[in-house]
Specification:
The complex is a heterotrimer. Chain A is α/β, with parallel strands linked by helices. Chain A has one domain: Transcription Regulator spoIIAA, CATH 3.30.750. Chain A is built from five helices and five strands. Chain A has a five-stranded mixed β-sheet with strand order 1-2-3-4-5, sandwiched between helices. The longest helix of chain A is centred in the middle third of the chain and has 16 residues. By secondary structure, chain B is α/β, with parallel strands linked by helices. Chain B has a single domain, classed as STAS domain (Transcription Regulator spoIIAA, 2-Layer Sandwich), CATH 3.30.750.24. Chain B has a five-stranded mixed β-sheet, sandwiched between helices. In chain B, strand 4, helix 3 and strand 5 form a beta-alpha-beta unit. In chain B, helix 1 runs parallel beside helix 2. The radius of gyration of chain B is 13 Å and the shape is globular. Chain B starts with a strand and ends with a helix. Chain C is an alpha/beta fold. Chain C folds into three domains: about 160 residues, Spore Coat Polysaccharide Biosynthesis Protein SpsA, Chain A (Alpha-Beta Complex); about 100 residues, 3 Solenoid (UDP N-Acetylglucosamine Acyltransferase, domain 1); about 160 residues, no CATH class. Helix content of chain C is about 30%, strand content about 25%. In chain C, helix 8 runs parallel beside helix 13. Chain C is globular and about 85 Å long. Classes of the chains: A alpha/beta, B alpha/beta, C alpha/beta. Chains A and C meet through helix 3, helix 4, strand 5 and helix 5 of A and strand 5, helix 4, helix 5 and helix 12 of C.
Chain lengths: ~120, ~120, ~475
């Protein structure tokens, strides 16, 4: 899986490409801006074709750490398969999910400035 | 099930309280008990306040009690049916066979009214 | 123009009680799922795309509507949180809304429209506004470029808040009675007030009185009376000499002999009196029962595979168990506790004795690594009370029964949990996530692989399950 990073509206956007599963879940968790506890990030899932329970686990774990420190993880651009997984597992209730990366960054920034 | 005789109207009325469920497993108990109660009187009120559930065999048992009561020139009235049990009576058309009362008191009184006619 | 439909769980919770297992958007109104009415209206109003947004489960609706090809309009889906306000919902669907006009249908409401009117032109001339609103929902336009005022009073539309079973009942009866047929209803209709589906077998001595709607694959046996004012869903059997008058029978229902169903709603084995809102679950199959399509072949295979795995595990663990257990009991490290747990089968409770081993000292660590604490539970797999891998058995509490209907699709009490195959779960929420995932994506062969993985994980685990 290829992980790349960008900044948009002062918010870090981590873009994932490929499949997020057991093999590369750790890769994501160890990625610098994902691991850093205070920065809020938007994870761009538009190029993720599938994720499984470990992939979910990675995202949930990262969010847990960041939220404990006042940050957050927002998600953007899920395809149908990814959305289905979030839904069966009811993980969609834990995240703010956007259909557009820019909209996600604007809202992430709003949350930041209001804190 | 509990059973006692009430004589407040001057007549001997058998008041039976049906409790819990009456279904295929215990409906025969009701029939045998009823046969015993018939040795004491032929007028009955079934108090269904504690009756939670009834199925087609339970209904069949109550209807057969009614028939037997009528055969002996008596009657069987029902009181305190919960909405749920009432619905079972309704869809099986058994509701048309019985006089139903909101409480045991009015059921007992209805026997009294009959006697003055 | 596009349509954004926003439906929240709190608005349709009451419906779950009456029709458990049917997604609220798929509840049939005169045999047509509620969602289809919304789709029909959106198309009439001139939409080019629909997005359905909910804070609850979407998968059933998604499976039914798919991508909207059936109606020739693209349908997409999104999840929101129940705390999101309208602006947040729009933000989360920014790409969908973009700069277009959006018709926002929000709340669990039925839009009463008439297909003869040209809503497309009416809406095209409206500015941004709230077209209709009620205490249960609203219809509004956003992103219009026109500024012209329009006389709101003249739009042939009204909103019906969908908030009680009585409203549902009266709505169905009203639509049934309406000669002008403002909606497109399913079934063949050679005469007014009478729609009949495919493969409907009506006995010669049965009587059908208008108005009536009958779905597909319905059997109406001898001497029955259907109607007036009856809605019969698909896959329904009405047995001999019964009558269905002023009532709605939902799909997959069997109505027994000699019954009189009047002013009621019947769904599976649930009988509802709309006026009072009382519902009763009938246990007697002679009266009312659901007709189930069986998936038994698949579950048979699954139970065989699980039992074989249990037998294998028992044989492997037998000798270590016999050797180590007595020693650990003497050492006081073998702790048992008995509790009653929920099962996936209705309200039956299972009484299990679970064991925990304190991992202090070489022998107990070895025993825990070999998962000897699960040994006794393996026998429960053989008699079919537990699966070998699934969900942690949940302790039975009074609330267990009410939660049951929500969890029954994925909960399967087992010796091992899917959560033990992974390292990241921290709390019961996480565990539930993994259990749900595999309940949906699992198959028996995969279960074996996962059981092996769980066993291997336990070898280097530092603490046993609390």
């Amino acid at each position: 899986m290829i992980i790349s990073e960008n900044t948009f509206n002062n918010i870090t956007v981590i873009a994932l490409q490929g499949t997020l599963d057991a093999r590369n879940a750790t890769q994501l968790k160890q990625f610098k801006s994902a691991a850093a506890s205070t920065t809020s990030v938007v994870i761009n899932l538009s190029e993720v074709d599938f994720l499984d329970s470990s992939g979910l686990g990675a995202i949930v774990s990262i969010a847990r750490v960041k939220r404990a420190q006042g940050g957050d993880v927002l998600l953007a651009c899920m395809n149908n398969k990814v959305r289905e997984v979030f839904e069966i597992t009811q993980v969609y209730k834990l995240f703010d999910i956007y259909d557009d990366v820019e909209a996600a960054t604007i809202n992430a920034e709003k949350k930041h400035t209001s804190l | 099930m509990t059973f006692h005789i009430d004589t407040s109207t001057g007549k001997k009325l058998g008041i039976a309280a049906l409790i819990g469920r009456i279904d295929s497993k215990n409906s025969s108990e009701l029939i045998t008990s009823f046969a015993l109660w018939q040795q004491q009187t032929s007028l009955f009120v079934f108090d269904c306040a504690m009756l939670d559930f009834i199925d087609s065999s339970g209904l069949g048992a109550i209807v057969s009690c009614l028939r037997k009561a009528i055969e002996h020139n008596g009657d069987l009235k029902l009181a305190n049916l919960s909405p749920k049990v009432s619905m079972v009576f309704e869809i099986t058309k058994a509701k048309k066979l019985f006089s139903m009362f909101p409480d045991t008191g009015s059921a007992i009184q209805s026997f009294e009214i009959n006697s003055t006619e | 123009m596009k349509t954004l439909i926003i439906i929240r769980e709190q608005d349709y919770e009451w419906l779950d009680h009456f029709f458990p297992g049917i997604h609220p958007l798929l509840v049939p109104i005169c045999n047509k799922p509620f969602a289809e009415f919304l789709i029909d209206f959106s198309i009439l109003a001139g939409s080019e795309a629909i997005r359905l947004v909910m804070d609850g489960p979407l998968s059933d609706v998604e499976r039914y509507c798919e991508n909207g090809n059936r109606w020739g309009i693209p349908i997409s889906y999104a999840s929101i949180k129940n705390t999101d306000d309208l602006q947040t919902v729009i933000d989360k669907n920014q790409r969908f809304c973009s700069e277009d006009r959006v018709l926002i249908i929000s709340g669990f409401v039925f839009i009463q429209y008439d297909k003869q009117y040209n809503y497309k032109t009416i809406f095209a001339s409206l500015p941004d506004c709230e077209i209709l609103s009620s205490n249960r929902g609203s219809l509004r336009l956003r992103g219009s470029r026109t500024e012209t005022q329009h006389d709101m009073g003249n739009i042939p539309l009204s909103l019906l808040g969908f908030d009680s079973i009585d409203v549902y009942y009266r709505l169905c009866m009203e639509i049934l009675n309406d000669i002008s047929s403002p909606y497109v209803l399913p079934g063949y209709s050679n005469e007014a007030y009478c729609h009949i589906g495919r493969n409907v077998v009506i006995s010669k001595s049965a009587e059908i009185r208008k108005p009536v709607i009958i779905g597909n694959n319905v059997q109406i046996l001898a001497d029955s009376i259907i109607g007036p004012k009856a809605v019969i869903g698909s896959n329904v059997i009405i047995d001999r000499e019964s009558s269905v008058i002023g009532s709605i029978v939902l799909e997959n229902t069997y109505i027994g002999e000699h019954l009189e169903v009047q002013n009621k709603i019947a769904s599976g084995n649930i009988l509802i009196e709309p006026e009072s809102g009382i519902s009763i679950a009938m246990d007697d199959p002679h009266l009312l029962t659901g007709i189930h399509q069986s998936g038994s072949a698949k579950s048979l295979f699954q139970s065989i595979v699980h039992r074989l795995a249990a037998i294998l595990l028992i044989t492997l663990q037998l000798i270590p168990f016999l050797l180590l257990t007595p020693i650990l009991i003497l050492q006081g490290k073998w702790k048992k506790s008995t509790n009653s747990y929920c099962t996936a089968v209705s309200e039956k409770h299972l009484i299990l004795t679970t064991t925990t081993i304190e991992r202090t000292g070489p022998l107990s660590t070895l025993a825990a690594a070999l998962s000897l604490d699960r040994f006794t539970l393996l026998f429960r797999v053989l008699i079919g009370q537990l699966a070998i891998i699934g969900s942690w058995p949940v302790v039975a509490t009074p609330s267990c029964i009410t939660e049951y209907s929500k969890t029954k699709s994925w909960y399967r009490a087992a010796v091992f949990s899917y959560a033990e195959t992974e390292e990241w779960p921290v709390n019961t929420g996480d565990t539930a996530i993994i259990e749900r995932y595999y309940a949906a994506h699992g198959n028996p062969m995969n279960d074996i692989a996962l059981t092996i993985k769980a066993l291997l994980n336990r070898i280097h685990e530092t603490n046993t399950h609390p």
